[in-house]
Amino acid sequence: MATDTSVIENPYGLNALWTQGGYVSKATLLVLLVMSMMSWYVIVTKVWDQRRLNKYAKAAEKDFWKAGNVREGVAQLKGSDNAFKSIAEDGLSAAQHHEGKLTDQIDLHEWITQALQRSVDAITGTMQSGLPVLASVGSTAPFVGLFGTVWGIYNALISIGIAGQASIDKVAGPVGEALIMTAFGLVVAVPAVLGYNILLRRNKVVLEKVNYFAHDVHALLLSGSRVGSAGGKPGSGGGTSTPAAALKR
Question: Which of 120, 138, 177, 215 has the fewest C-beta atoms under 10 angstroms from its C-beta?
Answer without folding.
Answer: 215
